[in-house]
Design a protein that fits this description.
This protein is α/β, with parallel strands linked by helices and 622 residues long. It is built from 18 helices and 32 strands. It is globular, with a radius of gyration of 24 Å. The structure holds adenosine monophosphate. The site of adenosine monophosphate has 19 residues, from strand 17, strand 26 and strand 27. GO terms for molecular function: acetate-CoA ligase activity; ATP binding.
Length: 622
């Protein structure tokens, strides 16, 4: 039965045209949140995907690949697909990127500008002797040089690795070292604070290019603007093959150092197909992905997917602020908006009236990724701006969206949606220790509805990571019984919608950023008073989770507020605010396994008052 519930009441604000949108609600859904159904035939723009089952049945990755240009002799280069093919066609003068500075002023690059600027950057790399496969890192905010740097790196056949500019010196130097970065693109301030002090420990780092050197680079760095001016751009693009590495994204695990996920040029096929189906991009769209290109979402969907589709991508150079965001959505007539649960929760807190004060009538589609999206937020979107939020799921290793609530199909608030065309998803059964159940080399799948299993993907989609940098064994362990194991736990309902249950491991998601507890624990233990540390994520109404650390002091030290602040200060200085713990508690002991590993699962259960589960591996007396 379809009803129109009171909590999805039409928007009253001037400019919100969606009061008559074809949205109805099925009161008989599996959750307490009503299903949101839609009528594609009445939508302002015909969705790219209207018949889910038929599209899944007919879809092939080869057909998606055929929609791209390719290079001669079977080559493929992301920069050609994203920029140069538009620059040599009717879209050459179309606006590719529109940057909004903190003061609201804008600067734009057309596809032709972007082609020229990225070719210049490629020529700079050539001039510096940076070759195919060598790694170019960035430590930058969302500025034009980041975008031209990524695309120029692809054109040169080198590999780009973006770092989040809010990382502290430790994560920055560790990733530069692990990735053997040859070039770093950064600003004077970031270089001084985060790289110069450790430069001697980075023997592979041959060139640091400052985007704001203004004619007087720091010692040991180069002025990018001057190099660009002197360079002679060539129209040639390195003849990369689909399987050549293009991107390196570091992500966090439970143990050990961050993992470098290697992605190849063929990933652009998935960015194209998911931009089409999951984000419903159409020619003429003004699209805004709020993620920072320091993370995979900001790269795959803030840089590559919109450019491959030839739309205009908005880039906000400032930090998140509710009124600013609404102003940007309204003034720039954003049509498709891809954002994250933490930001949406902040907007919800700011109130419905704030949203209604702006003319968001151009907005057609809203999507979210990165952490669990509360069903309240999905439904609130409908109330605030007349559109529900479409949650989707993927991770650094998958390179692109895998599961999504789609524009023309019903939304089940709280669910991540259904697999995209070309993506095969399974739930692998887990044994009592949480290990995947494999029989005769084949994974045992959970087939009954609403039963938990480990979310798994059948390898073969183009944006799948092709390796963990220098860690073959770690990469191999991600696959079992014919599936890639994601580390997430999920359920599938009887209609094929997937519901996130939680992480199967100890990694923490805070404000959409994946944080490895080991990295934080190692840093805390550098404090002279700390003997041991255990780090977990605790729930937070806005950030999803925040990092909480339990520290055990060395003999001779006693807990005090001063000591707590001193440990916190060290963590913030070394790790940066995005990774450092929000809370630190002094512990008298930490629960450990008999083999000495900290049982973070138990720390978390005790902190949250949850059942302690199987304690058979617990060290006596803990
Ligand atoms: P990252 O590799 O940093 O993009 O983080 C990927 C992880 O974020 C996934 O493995 C999930 O644990 C979480 N995640 C991403 N999207 C969602 C979603 N829609 N719902 C719940 N968790 C998500």
């Amino acid at each position: 039965m379809s009803v129109r519930p009171a909590d999805l009441r039409p928007c009253a604000a001037v400019g919100l045209r969606r009061s008559d949108e074809p949205v109805t609600v099925d009161a008989g859904s599996a959750t307490r949140w009503p299903v949101i159904t839609k009528a594609p035939s009445r939508m302002a723009v015909r969705p790219n995907l209207t018949d889910y089952e038929a599209t899944c049945a007919s879809f092939t990755w080869d057909a998606a690949r055929a929609a791209l240009d390719g290079l001669p002799d079977g080559g493929l280069n992301i920069a050609h697909e994203a920029v140069d093919r538009h620059a040599s066609g009717p879209r050459r003068d179309a606006e590719a990127l529109r940057f909004v500075r903190a003061d609201g002023s804008t600067r734009s690059l057309s596809y032709a500008d972007l082609a020229e600027a990225s070719s210049r950057f490629a020529a700079v790399l050539q001039g510096l002797g940076v070759g195919r496969g060598e790694r170019v890192f960035s430590l930058l905010g969302r500025c034009p040089e980041l975008f031209t740097g990524v695309l120029g790196t692809f054109k040169n056949g080198s590999v780009f690795c973006p770092l989040f500019s809010a990382f502290g010196p430790e994560p920055v130097s560790q990733r530069l070292r692990l990735g053997r970065g040859r070039v770093l693109l950064t600003t004077r301030a970031l270089y001084r604070r985060k790289v110069a002090p450790v430069r001697d420990d980075l023997p592979d780092l041959a060139h640091v290019l400052l985007v704001d050197a203004d004619g007087s680079p720091e010692p040991g760095t180069l002025d990018l603007a001057e190099l660009l001016q002197r360079s002679v751009p060539s129209r040639e693009i390195a003849a990369t093959r689909p399987e050549d590495p293009a991107l390196l994204h570091f992500t966090s695990g439970t143990t050990g150092t961050p993992k470098g996920a290697v992605h190849v040029h063929d990933a652009v096929v998935a960015h194209y197909a998911t931009g089409l189906y999951a984000l419903d991009l159409h020619p003429g769209d003004v699209y805004w992905c709020t993620a920072d290109p320091g993370w995979v979402t900001g790269m795959s969907y803030g840089v590559i997917a919109p450019l491959v589709h030839g739309v205009t991508a908005l880039v906000d150079e400032a930090e998140m602020d509710a009124d600013r965001w609404y102003r940007l959505l309204a003034e720039h007539r954003v049509t498709v908006w891809y954002t994250a649960p933490t930001a949406l929760r902040m907007l919800m807190r700011a109130g419905t009236e704030r949203a209604r004060a702006h003319d968001l009538s151009a907005l057609r589609f809203v999507a979210s990724v990165g952490e669990p999206l509360n069903p309240e937020v999905v439904v609130w979107g409908q109330e605030a701006w007349g559109l529900p939020v479409h949650d989707n799921w993927w991770q650094t290793e998958t390179g692109g969206i895998m599961i999504a609530n789609l524009v023309a199909t019903e939304i089940r608030p709280g669910s991540m949606g259904r697999p995209l065309p070309g993506v095969e998803v399974g739930l692998v059964a887990r044994d009592a220790d949480g290990a995947p159940v494999i029989q005769d080399g084949v994974a045992v799948l959970v087939t009954d509805p609403d039963v938990e299993g480990e979310l798994a993907l059948r390898p073969g989609w183009p944006s799948m990571f092709r390796g963990h940098l220098d860690e073959e064994e770690r990469y191999r362990r991600c696959f079992a019984g014919g599936w890639y194991l994601t580390g997430d736990l999920a359920r599938r309902d009887a209609d094929g919608y997937y519901w996130f249950v939680g992480r199967g491991d100890d990694v923490i998601k805070s404000s959409g950023h994946l944080i490895g507890p080991f990295e934080v624990e190692s840093c805390l233990m550098e404090h002279p008073a700390v003997a041991e540390a255990g780090v977990i994520g605790v729930p937070d109404a806005v950030a999803g989770q925040v990092v909480k650390a339990f520290v055990l002091l060395r003999p001779g030290h006693v807990p005090s507020e001063e000591l707590r602040l001193s440990i916190l200060a060290l963590a913030r200085k070394r790790l940066g605010a995005a990774v450092a713990p929000r809370e630190i508690a002094f512990a008298e002991s930490l629960p450990k396994t008999k083999s000495g590993k900290i049982l973070r699962r138990l720390l978390r259960a005790r902190e949250l008052g949850l059942p302690e589960g199987d304690l058979s591996t617990l060290e006596a007396g803990r």
